[in-house]
Amino acid sequence: MRAPIFGRSAVFRPDETRKRWLLDAGIVVAVAAVLKLLLHLYAGRNYGYFVDELYYLALAGAGKVLLTGLIARELGGRRFAQGLAALSILVAPGFLAIDNWLSMNAFEPLFWMGSAFVLIRIIKTGNQKFWLWFGLLAGMGLENKYSMAIFGFAIMAGLLVTPERRFFRTPWIWIAGLLAFVLFLPNLLWNIQHHFPFLELQANIRRSGRNTDLPAMAFLGEEILSMLPLSAPIWLAGLWYFFFHRQGKPFRVFGWAWLITAGLIVTLNPRVYYLYPAFPILLAAGSVMWESWRARPRWKWIMPAYITLIVVLAAVLAPAAVPVLPVETYVRYAISTHLQQPRIETRRLGPLPQLYADQFGWEEMVATVARAYHSLPPDVQVRTAIFGQNYGQAGAVDLFGSKYGLPKAISGHQSYYLWGPRGYMGESIIVMGDREEVLEKLFAVVEKVARVDHPYSMPDQHFDVFYCRGLKGSLNEFWPNVKKWQ
């Protein structure tokens, strides 16, 4: 087995060294993580649940800050590098945005970064048993989001084109792959059983033109904006570190992995945030490069000025990424600055961007549905289903419904379709957001009973509520017609 490449500093540090780190650079990184946490706790009071939270129901953001600082440390960075890496994650508008609500996107970078951290330890120590941790994180990451497969493939490809291909001659990397597969196997079997709904979803999204189409250069521009424009020299320096710097040469696998990941994601023409998890490793490496440049006399005044500019620009852009401003104040801010979030879908917008608008109107919608539901006689209520057009509507009823005395909702959207009609027969249904002329073809009686409108919600969440009786046929037989996998 190859000896550790950095001598004593490459192995796990003794307790005294760890204590010094906690009292020195560790404090800087921890402060950045706490600031990240406090920012999201403060912002969370202004708006409501995001639409995807209603389906999946942000501490993960603080974990990103800590882990990025630790990666910078493992790459050879001292206090300045670790602090700059942590700051870069703290102020990145893209991470401020995705960490603002509970979804798999908030946790995805932790699995990518955790896997990268383990691989750094393998390279530095030569301890191949650490591959077991890599396999564990990769398997958990696949359960969280399938894009972990892209990063995993990119890492394996990066190993093959670097001297670290020697790892494939040991059993541990193969055992790690088997471990990841076993952890992912229940998910794979579920996909096989249901004919790979994820692939069906992606095909339907492409066919519908729902996602904003971004050419490669426009996509890159959105990434630069999402990571903060002034941080671009840091992550670009990270690429330089991995490919051209002597200290970064042992870790060149990460340079190749980033390029391969970016190439695959751009080719797939996805949403702008799909590449976000690949940036922390570059920001950590770039911070190490900047620390080495900081020692040059001409850079002594540049560094404080540069960091000050980063903080100022981040403060200016923050309201566009995380809801730190009350909604009325934000609307004035957006009008005066012309700063908006990147468009991820082609849906029509109201006064707020989608990531903010989708946090409004859900409980008000449930309260409206509850009034219609409780206007029915008690013996009819127990036979009345509440049908939502999407998982946001159905999820809102499931979350807030108990407060208003409502049963669980049914829907044909994504996994709600698999959960079926919950025993309802179709004799009495409250339907949210359909067209009256369509419903009249399906039911004996259709009555408009309410209207859902919220000034700040997405325009497509302004809709009529109908009470329908006498479905022309069995709901179980009709159920395949409500499937909406997009």
Molecular structure report:
The protein is an alpha/beta fold and 486 residues long. It folds into 2 domains: 7-332, no CATH class; 362-482, no CATH class. It is built from 24 helices and 5 strands. The chain has helices at residues 15-23, 25-43, 51-56, 59-74, 79-91, 93-98, 104-125, 131-144, 148-160, 171-193, 197-208, 216-226, 232-244, 252-268, 279-294, 302-321, 327-337, 354-357, 362-374, 378-381, 391-400, 415-419, 436-440, 475-478; strands at residues 384-388, 410-411, 428-432, 443-452, 463-471. A 5-stranded mixed beta sheet has the order 2-1-3-5-4. Strand 1 (384-388), helix 21 and strand 2 (410-411) form a beta-alpha-beta unit. Helix 19 (362-374) packs across helix 21. The longest helix is centred in the middle third of the chain and has 23 residues, at 171-193. The two termini are 50 Å apart.
Summary, kept brief:
This protein has helices at 15-23, 25-43, 51-56, 59-74, 79-91, 93-98, 104-125, 131-144, 148-160, 171-193, 197-208, 216-226, 232-244, 252-268, 279-294, 302-321, 327-337, 354-357, 362-374, 378-381, 391-400, 415-419, 436-440, 475-478; strands at residues 384-388, 410-411, 428-432, 443-452, 463-471. By secondary structure, it is an alpha/beta fold.
